[in-house]
Amino acid sequence: MKVVYTILASLFAVSLLWTCKPDEVIGEERVPHLPAEVYRYYDTTAIQGLFFDPYNDSVINDHIATLGRVLFYDTRLSRNNRVSCGTCHRQATGFTDNFVHSLGFEFLPAERNTQGIVNTGTQIGFFWDLREQLLDHMVLQPIANHIEMGIDDEAYMISKVEDAAYYKPLFTNAFGSEEVTSHRMGIAMAQFVRSIISYRTKFDEGRSQVSHPTMTFPNYTEEENLGRHLFFFKFPCSTCHGGPNLDGSLTFAQNIGLDEHYSDPGVIGMFNETTPLNGWFKTPPLRNIALTAPYMHDGRFQTLEEVVEFYNSGIQYHPQLSQTLRTHDNGGLFNLGPSIPPEHHVVINGTMPLRMFMTDAEKNALIAFMRTLTDYELMQDPKFSDPFVAKGQ
Ligand code: HEC
Ligand code: HEC
After folding, report:
1. Which residues neighbour 310 within 8 Å (Cβ) at sequence distance 6 or greater?
2. What mean pLDDT value characterizes the chain?
3. Which residue has a Cα nearest atom 32 of ligand 1?
4. In the chain, pLDDT over 90 holds for what percent of residues?
5. Ligand 1 atom 35: the closest Cα is on which residue?
6. Closest C-alpha among 288, 309, 290 to residue 362
7. Rounded to the nearest 5 degrees, what angle is found at the Cα of 273, between the Cα atoms of 269 and 274?
8. 347 C-alpha vs ligand 1 centroid, how far in Å?
9. Could you tell me the CATH number of the domain that includes residue 84?
10. Which residue has the least CA distance to atom 22 on ligand 1?
11. Residues 165 and 116 in one domain
12. Averaged over 252-275, what is the pLDDT?
């Protein structure tokens, strides 16, 4: 009998161990593993001679960015310690995830598709509706957002950071004292975010090998060069996705005719216009685009093929459709082939959408070109990785 009891008791003990194990892991304090010497987040030698300045003159302090990295990946900044910025903005996929709607701290879906993060120092506004211009302010908003991280009480946010011993030396190195303020947190996360620069793509290599951007890139395949030509010269893509990030730094937001009626109005009241803007969204950078599916503010397209087919044949009639995406005889800037058949001549407030009449070879070439915009080194650079996971980094 005694033996049976002993066996039962030990079985019970073993089962306790089994059930305890996951709790132990959850309860274990997460601490960041940082390198003995800080990484160089502000590497001006690396970008010397480049055709553009990815920092855009902003100066980054390596200690401040290191603090920013820890904050960026710290799940403590969510109400239930479940998500960090890095949960939705994952390094391996261009600092986004591949969900249509990322899930916040309580598993509720974010309202729009998560944007990638790249060369933010060179951009003029943030979020799909460009509602924030200052990165130092912008980076605090996801913490307060009731769906994303859920801490809208500043004092509580600060106390959570103060409670973690590992922040004391990080704040001291960054700002000269241990004091935690939301202002300091904003500066630190913004500097880390701004340090996420991309300049090592096949596109950048090719661009640095020619004296003028219109020249054939020697490092490109024939198809990639064709795609680049189509993107910049034949089709209207670069009138909006221009500049070194292939984004809308110069053209701001646009209505590209995704829908006849937008359920999400996008940009609201930016220019004191008399008619409210409707369906205007940030023209996103196309750097790392091959990794950041699904696409558009609502993640409606799963592949680049679908995006290209949309521009080719799917642009919808909308009174505020961008001028570059209207037919030529409707004030559009591009004239791309046969006229629209009369039965499709539906004109709403003077706009008709452009049809691009792309061949299959042209569609494939455009996609091949967009694939040259991926920065594989950035995706693996340890200084941007999650310090709570990467031991010794
Ligand atoms: C639950 C997922 C989620 C979390 C957590 C999250 N984000 Fe985001 N992020 C998004 C979504 C969705 C958008 C687009 C929101 C919009 O346009 O309204 C976005 C947009 C951004 C942008 C704008 C990029 C651009 O090109 O305009 C930046 C920068 C950013 N987030 C940084 C952060 C930082 C810093 C944190 C942590 C403090 C964070 N995010 C936490 C989902 C998330
Ligand atoms: C009139 C300006 C304009 C033109 C022209 C234009 N785009 Fe866009 N593009 C945008 C805007 C604005 C968005 C985001 C729209 C949204 O989400 O509502 C976008 C989104 C995209 C996306 C998805 C980006 C993401 O992060 O989800 C890709 C890819 C893209 N465009 C490629 C192209 C290609 C290829 C062409 C040429 C055939 C082109 N664009 C022409 C303005 C433009």
Report:
1. 258, 301
2. 88
3. 139
4. 73
5. 139
6. 309
7. 115
8. 37
9. 1.10.760.10
10. 127
11. yes
12. 83
Give the pLDDT mean for 289-304.
98
| 82, 96, 115, best to mutate for ligand 1 pocket (most atoms within 8 Å of CB) | 115
- Ligand 2: residue of 249, 286, 374 to mutate (most ligand atoms within 8 A of CB) is 286
Residue of the CA atom closest to atom 15 of ligand 1:
127
List the structure tokens of 6.
């002993």
User: CB–CB of 349/318 below 8 Å?
Assistant: no
Pair 231, 146 in one domain: no
For 2, the domain range is 1-30
- Determine the pLDDT at residue 347: 58
Q: What is the pLDDT of residues 39-60, one digit of tens each?
A: 999 999 999 989 999 999 889 9
**Cα 285 to averaged position of ligand 2 atoms, centre (Å):** 9
**Tens-place pLDDT, residues 336-348:** 765 555 555 555 5
- Adjacent-strand bridge partners of 103: 109
Reported as a single tens digit per residue, the pLDDT across 176-208 is 999 999 999 999 999 999 999 999 999 999 999
The total number of structural domains in the chain stands at 3
Per-residue confidence (pLDDT) for residue 272, from 0 to 100: 61
For 118-251, where are the alpha helices, taking DSSP H only?
135-138, 141-144, 154-162, 167-175, 182-195, 202-209, 222-229, 237-240
Gap from CA of 312 to ligand 2 centroid (Å): 12
Q: How far is the CA of 129 from the centre of ligand 2 (A)?
A: 14
In a domain, 392, yes or no: no
